């Protein structure tokens, strides 16, 4: 399958596929005499894994490290993702539970004293409630 066909089938751009090759995530199975990239079933499966892991929020470097491990396990990667999600949820809950006036460098003085006006930052229907 040529790179353009693969791009259309996956919804990725040709440039993205080329970039994935540059950073070592996805190499074509072969090249034609004219230099066109050709991808086989194994490369398509690898690309599907890349797309899935990107949706999970993994960096390209992390994805490459995962996929290059001989004992790669999608189950273990999903478990790692769940741990990360739990950590993010815990952190956001901690931030949500903080008292309204505990904003580190933003403490002290009203918003007008800091030169910040929420009324100008938000349309009236979008203003946060206090």
- What do we call the CATH topology? Multidrug-efflux Transporter Regulator, Chain: A, Domain 2
Mean pLDDT, rounded to whole units?
Answer: 83
Helix percent reads: 40-55%
Low-pLDDT sequence parts: none
CATH class: Mainly Alpha
- Ends: how far apart? 56 Å
Number of strands: 2
Number of helices: 6
Q: How many domain regions?
A: 1
Measured by DSSP, the beta-strand proportion falls in under 5%
Q: Going across the biggest sheet, name each strand in turn.
A: 1-2
Summed up:
By secondary structure, this protein is mostly helical. It is built from six helices and two strands.
SSE blueprint and pairings:
Blueprint: H1 3-10, H2 14-22, E1 30-31, E2 37-38, H3 41-55, H4 60-67, H5 74-97, H6 118-121
Antiparallel strand pairs: 1-2
Helix pairs in contact: 3-4
List keywords for this structure.
2 strands; single chain; Multidrug-efflux Transporter Regulator, Chain: A, Domain 2; two-stranded antiparallel ribbon; mainly alpha; 130 residues
